[in-house]
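Changelog excerpt

This revision adds worked examples to the README so contributors can see how folded entries look when concatenated. The first example is reproduced verbatim below.
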Amino acid sequence: MRLAILDDYQNVALDLADWSRLGTDMEIKAFNSPARDEQLLVERLATFDIVIVMRERTAFPRHVIEALPRLKLLVSAGTRNASIDLDACERVGIAACAAQGSSQGVAFTAEMAWLLILALYKRFPHSDRALRAGRWQPDLARGLHGQILGLVGLGRIGSRMANIGRAFGMLVLAWSPHLTSERAEQLGATAVDKAELFECSDVVSLHLVLSARTSNIIARSDLCRMRKDAILVNTARAGLVDEQALLEILRTRRIAGAGLDVFWQEPLSNEHELCRMDNVLLTPHLGYAIRENLASFYAHAIEVVDAWRRGEAVPQLQR
């Protein structure tokens, strides 16, 4: 059998786990660059029986899945992957399975969100560039104490964000479609409606799961409610936000800036408009790309492949 590992950008997949557990009859190939289009993706994978994908880095829509008749097992990091057409997999008999990453994945994503918040507030990138160019203190930093943190989503990551926000001395507001005041209070936040959160917050940080229900849940009207000195941080999924609306808000400097670790098309092209904006801090989806996290995922992926080959039950991707 042949197994493909996609989007191994750092060339580490084969070293982070013991692939020999799959036996000498399993041929394994890791790809360290993304397919430039769907036709190339199909050509790459035409001779593979098993494909391992890292979250939503590579999309598998219906027409791609139907063009891969040899493919029998698709293993994805995490319990959900919105970029895989699960109905198409079911129709053609592909098992679409989940492999867990590290149990500390929640902490890693929250760390990334706070890195972006602090870097924007303390003007780290701009000050670093200025200092190297011979300019001293080009801007004043800002303090987080006494500021308002608005969390869109108060689940495992959002609640961790709330704890850290309070440690910085911030007031924490929260909203999600089904959040109750009682639940928010238990987690140290105040539940408000979406309009109030965007109007009042100094920092808005997104922590919802992307689904058909939450796609573009952050609309132009929400972004327009933000204060001129507020920032938006997204370490969740780009699809939560109306892309064109956010670009316009940033282009016209309606808000102070944004910190983005996720994008509508990944990898992000360096020709994208975001790369020319000086009020945006960009990181290449690093909230998930942690050595411990990837090592855990690949180890669990090997377990899933091994169990599938033996005909045992394997964890299915959730819809």
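The second example, added in the same revision:
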Amino acid sequence: MEHINNQDRQAQILAILSRLPRKMVTVHGDDKVAAFVLYELCHKNCFDLERAAYFVDNPDFNCLKGVAGCARPELSVNNDIWQDADAFATQISQSPFHGAVSELAHPSIKYGSRSETEALAEIAHQLGIKSPSYCSWNMKHDNHGLLIYEKSLNLDVNLDEHLVDGLSLLSFCPIV
């Protein structure tokens, strides 16, 4: 893998993040918009995440719902997912990891009595994420976004400071 310095890597990620809203509009009618965005964020040219599971925690309804999952080893994408949206939607629908994430539902972590660390470790174990990291952010309607992810071994710089900026775009995707 070609080594890119931290400043160039940040510029590359910020360029990807700045183009994502326009790309999201091209698939706005698709119920898998969150999967498109998550795949883009996981891509090796962006945050280089091996696996990522996106959840929405709704304390009002005491529900933590899996929305999208991306396991890069399961996906063999050769084209631009935004140009060939139907092919990507079909492929993500057939992904066992995405299916496992989408079917997962737990009581709210924010509302519940279990510790956040304990609940997240249990979910990561259920999904087979071996070295999990976690990120959460506030969303509209007092919901909370949650990402459980596993970084790629190729990651040579720490770019977590931009991760929440990218994940915030998931807040604009429909939850189905």
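Reviewer comment on example two: The chain has a mean pLDDT of 89. Residues 6-172 form a domain with the Beta-Lactamase fold (CATH 3.30.450).
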